[in-house]
Specification:
By secondary structure, this protein is an alpha+beta fold. It is built from 17 helices and 46 strands.
């Protein structure tokens, strides 16, 4: 199930995770999304991890690049602090399960990575680099990214996480792989050399200390998998078997890895677990060599910390004496550990170990805390009514002393001794500060560049997601020590199908704005009605609406007053926009004025079952396109594939679109359609297409017109895509400005009803196309040639064949990107493809 909802508020968006804190030091939650049950096996696993002091940081370019089996082995198996630094959030990829692309896809993939880390035990980091799409050359990647900024982010992560060993997924040697891949390895090696240098990025040293890892290794792909030059790591190097079995968890590391990798559902990476021996290879890129183990020469015990040997001994005793039937029996030993740990000088590693120990202590106590609010959305400046609850599910004495409100700097005294398995509740009200930022992923709050996100607050750089909007702390006394557990307000919902849903607090404006159509097409000089919706987040929202248009565009009326009586009430207002007499593109911003404040935000919810719901509140903008466009035909059949917005774009052009299923592909059913368009990756994702192809081809033979958009060459349900032989490849052209050569300039696709000229290929976004055809029957006519710099021309992006009395088209051009972005020439050329034979 997936859905994208605009300006409507659902009953389920977030799940809270509460993690423990150390001594009197407040810590951030390990994840604000979902808490693993603190079972005896989980506590024992974490105790073993607390004992270990080794750390490894894995570095690659994208979500899905990480070696989840290695991360699971290092984290779950050997108990090391293990992180994954993905330079990007995967914004530039395709989406197998829904319509999200670009920044929305990046937010979804961020949550997929967090879901993966919850399975394999790793920690997740990012840089400010934006995935701008496939790059064939690392030098192009560095032209798009701010190389120094990304390098600074990698250095910052190393200094913050303090790994003993760095591991790259890709080689520093350019080869047949993504340019981002090679760039990630190059930057990792540079950062390895700079992280310990006090002269490198000195602005970071006010809060961080230099850190020099012992070595950096390249963990390549096995033979035949691919990964760039030298990717075959069967060459001599360090070999390790990581295919072990963890009896505490009841799984092999291959099984854990498969569950982790299966979180990458937007990329179709569902995996089957493996069992038994599994070898990984490592090549030295820098630092001290290793011969037997990637952490050769690293002291992974508490003995590496001055004064830490006693902590190691006490931890071993706690593990030996741990009673899974009575975890609370370990509390005195843990308190002794805490006091010893508190006496050590604080650095980032010790602080993290304190957080981990407190999480273990919370689990042994069976201490549960929550703050519940009646509604998971709040407007800055209003009152939050909260119900705080604490319950201890053991017989160890615990006193609840206070709840702290970090945003307001005050606290609520509780002063209560908790009795076993009896919850204690306290009610309170606090004001959400008027300066609280609206909920929006921090890396999307400001306009970035084509290759970089803009993040003005350095403390946020590297975080996977936003910190809580209104953080709270629960303060307890346990055995004479102070335990502080961080949390945040949540709405608790009982769903009849999904059960309990915990929805974290979101900060919204008093109203949200939405254009039901985010793109409008105008004939030059014409006027169109444009609808703007305003939805109340609170009852009694009153103000005015207006649209900001660039020069040459006119809007009437200048302003609409609005008054919304009820919560979640929506009103629609119709403005009339007049386009200029020439071809032009405008981005029109909607504004609501309330009590002297301006609001521009949409309310977009993204739902997929494998990740928590996502709220985005970007500016409400309408893209308006003044375009000289002629269409022929009217009725279009659309067979969806993996998900795209092309059908909606066809409707904007003036076509009536009917959605089809595989069963509809009969000559009789299709005969009234002027064209049938197949959505992206339909031959990869649909199981009802292959058996119905004869009916589709019969429609073409009788005079119909079929347009098949790109499919990947891997994972085809059937290799037959067309009535004639056609073979797909991995060929693509990533330079969106690559010159386009018309191979048959007088073909009807270029002349009727719109004359296609070179300027029609201006303004394309991200790429020209992907998964071009590489071989085809002579009945096909290739219409376009294009290539990336330094490559030979590729002619398989647009092929047209006569079949009987009709036309069959295969096109790898990126219509699914260009049409929703309002690229004028893309509309004109696609209209011509639909018009073939008319």
């Amino acid at each position: 199930m997936n859905a994208r909802i605009q300006c409507k508020r659902s009953a389920s968006r977030r799940i809270l995770c509460i993690a423990a804190a150390a001594c009197t030091v407040t810590v951030l939650p390990i994840s604000t999304r979902a808490a693993e049950p603190q079972s005896s096996s989980a506590i024992l696993q974490e105790l073993r991890s607390f004992r270990e002091m080794g750390s490894v940081l894995y570095i690659a370019a994208h979500p899905d690049d990480e070696n989840t089996r290695l991360i699971a082995y290092l984290s779950r198996g050997r108990g090391y602090r293990t992180g994954y630094l993905s330079l990007t959030r995967g914004d530039g990829g395709q989406n197998l399960i829904g319509p999200e692309l670009g920044q929305e896809l990046g937010v979804v993939r961020t949550q997929e990575l967090l879901a993966a880390r919850r399975v394999d035990g790793g920690q997740q980091f990012f840089t400010r680099a934006l995935d701008f799409g496939f790059s064939k050359d690392y030098r192009e990647t560095f032209r798009m990214w701010d190389r120094n900024q990304v390098l600074a982010d990698v250095v910052r992560t190393i200094r913050e996480f303090r790994p003993d060993v760095l591991i790259t997924r890709f080689s520093t040697v350019p080869g047949g792989t993504h340019g981002h891949h090679t760039a990630s390895a190059i930057l990792a090696l540079e950062a390895f050399k700079l992280a310990g240098d006090t002269n490198a990025f000195p602005e970071q040293l006010s809060e961080l200390k230099p850190w020099q890892p012992k070595r950096i290794l390249w963990n390549g792909f096995p033979r035949g998998f691919g990964g760039g030059a030298g990717s075959d790591t069967n060459t001599p190097g360090l070999q390790m078997d990581i295919g072990g079995y963890n009896p505490v968890l009841g799984e092999s590391y291959g099984e854990i890895a498969a569950r982790s990798r299966s979180m990458h559902k937007t990329q179709g990476f569902g995996s089957v677990g493996t069992r038994g021996a599994a070898s990984e290879s490592f090549q030295l890129l820098g630092g001290e060599p290793a011969t037997k183990d990637i952490l050769d020469g690293v002291d992974t015990t508490w003995g590496r910390v001055p004064g830490g040997a006693e902590i190691g001994r006490l931890t071993d005793e706690a593990i030996t004496q741990f009673n899974p039937q009575n975890p609370a029996a370990s509390v005195p030993a843990l308190l002794t550990l805490r006091s010893r740990l508190a006496a050590l000088p604080t650095d980032s590693m010790i602080a993290e170990k304190r957080r981990q120990l407190d999480h273990i202590l919370q689990g042994c106590l069976g201490l549960y805390v929550e703050t519940v609010i009646p509604l998971a959305e709040a407007v800055p400046g209003e009152t939050l009514k909260m119900r705080h609850t604490a319950i201890v599910r053991s017989d160890f004495p615990v006193r609840w002393t206070a709840v702290r409100y970090l945003a307001g700097g005050d606290e609520l005294a509780t002063d209560t001794d908790l009795k076993p398995n009896q919850g204690v509740t306290r009610e309170s009200s606090r004001t959400l500060p008027a300066t609280t930022p609206l909920t929006q992923p921090y890396w999307l709050r400001e306009e970035g560049t084509i290759g970089m996100f803009r993040v003005d607050d350095p403390s946020l750089i590297g975080r996977p997601e936003n910190p809580p909007a209104f953080p709270v702390e629960y303060v307890f006394e346990v055995g004479g020590q102070t335990l502080v557990i961080p949390g945040e307000p949540v709405q608790v919902i009982g769903d009849r199908v999904k059960g309990e849903i915990r929805q974290r607090l979101e900060v919204t404006p008093p109203v949200s704005l939405n254009f039901p159509e985010d793109l409008e097409l105008f004939a030059p000089g014409t006027a169109h009605p444009v609808v703007l919706e305003v939805t109340s987040a609170r009852a009694g929202a009153t103000g005015t609406l207006h649209l900001d248009t660039p020069a040459g565009w006119k809007v009437t009326p200048a302003m609409f007053p609005f008054s919304l009586t009820n919560y979640d009430e929506t009103a629609r207002f119709t403005f009339t926009i007049t386009a200029p007499t020439n071809t032009a593109t405008a981005r029109i911003l909607a504004t609501a004025e309330i009590d002297g404040k301006s609001y521009h935000n949409r309310h977009v919810e993204i739902h997929h079952d494998h990740i928590p719901p996502i709220l985005l509140q970007p500016p409400a903008r309408l893209k308006a396109l003044s375009l000289d466009l002629v269409i022929r035909g009217h009725q279009i059949g659309y067979l969806p594939g993996a998900g795209d917005a092309v059908a909606e774009c066809l409707q904007r052009m003036g076509y009536a679109v009917t959605f089809l299923t595989g069963a509809d592909l009969t000559a009789e059913h299709l005969r009234n359609f002027d064209a049938v368009v197949i959505g992206i990756r339909a031959f990869n994702t649909r199981t009802d297409l292959t058996q119905n192809l004869p009916g589709l081809f019969a429609y073409v033979e009788a005079g119909g017109n079929v347009i098949v958009q790109y499919n990947t060459s891997d994972g085809l349900q059937n290799t037959r895509l067309a009535p004639y032989d056609l073979k797909l490849s991995h060929d693509r052209v990533t330079d969106e400005t690559a010159p386009m050569t018309l191979l048959a300039p007088n073909h009807p696709a270029f002349t009727t009803p719109n004359r296609i000229v070179p300027s029609d290929f201006d303004g394309w976004v991200q790429e020209r196309g992907l998964y071009f055809a590489s071989e085809w029957d002579d009945h096909f006519t290739p219409l376009l040639a294009c290539n990336d710099p330094g490559e030979s021309p590729k002619n398989g992006s647009l092929l047209v064949a006569h079949y009987g009395r009709g036309y069959f088209v295969y096109t790898g051009l990126s219509w699914f990107r260009e049409l929703p972005e309002g690229v004028p020439g893309a509309y004109r050329l696609f209209a011509n493809l639909i018009s073939l034979g008319k």
